[in-house]
Write a structure and sequence with these properties.
Layout: H1 4-9, E1 13-18, E2 30-35, E3 42-48, E4 60-66, H2 73-85, E5 94-97, E6 100-101, E7 112-119, E8 123-130, E9 140-148, E10 153-161, E11 167-169, E12 181-189, E13 195-200
Parallel strand pairs: 1-11, 3-4
Antiparallel strand pairs: 1-8, 2-7, 3-5, 7-8, 9-10, 9-12, 12-13
């Protein structure tokens, strides 16, 4: 077991995102790599039942939660925001910028670098190297989403990141292959919906494996 002291002295958080069908006994290979810079990349969430025009913001990753889909993923997440915002109802379409309703923008502070390796068998290895202002955060919350090419969320999973050994499964739809999907990862502090850092295959330059 790796102690918290040693863990945070390395300024490194690691979590594995695995597909339910992945074979843990085999050694996956790197398919692609992507990362954020040290400055914060924001998250723009859109909740809608119809067509919507995505805002053009170079420093933000868009994700669309459908409110008319077969599951209640978007509705449940929007209801969570409604509780935090202390409102009874929220009318779609709803734009959420870094957990705040609307598209208000601010500075992009230095928060740390989020690095992601997409491996074979739908495995994502994620590392976060926090800025010094976040080095003492005791617990993190990791979110992982799979989007189609139109940025609609196909699956979303979350997990506490309080140990380097933490791992959890991301179900990836069988008809969604690496070439047809975007992978998005963002992290928040525990009990906080605001993203500290985010990275995606749809945003910024991808790295050669």
């Amino acid at each position: 077991m790796i102690s918290f002291h040693h863990f945070f002295s390395t300024a490194l958080l690691t979590v594995l995102f695995l597909n339910f069908s992945a074979d843990a006994s085999s050694q996956p290979k790197v398919i692609k790599q992507f990362q954020s810079g040290p400055a914060q990349i924001s998250l723009t969430e859109v909740y809608t039942s119809g067509a919507v025009e995505l805002p053009k913001m170079h420093d933000s990753i868009p994700v669309i939660f459908r409110l008319d889909g077969p599951d209640d993923l978007g509705r449940k997440r929007l209801n969570t925001y409604a509780v935090v915002w202390k409102v009874d109802t929220v009318s779609a379409p709803v734009f959420v910028f870094n957990s705040k309703q609307g598209l208000k923008r601010g500075d992009s502070p230095l928060t740390g670098t989020l690095r992601v390796e997409v491996l074979s068998k739908h495995v994502c290895l994620v590392r976060f190297e926090p800025d010094e202002h976040y080095a003492d955060v005791p617990e993190w919350h990791a979110m992982g989403a799979v989007l189609d090419r139109n940025f609609n969320v196909l699956s979303l999973e979350d997990q506490m990141m309080d140990r380097v050994e933490d791992a959890f499964m991301i179900p990836i739809q069988s008809d969604c292959h690496f070439s047809d999907c975007h992978f998005v990862v963002w992290i928040t502090r525990d009990n906080d919906l605001e993203p500290v850092q985010a990275a995606s295959t749809s945003h910024l330059a991808e790295l050669d494996p």
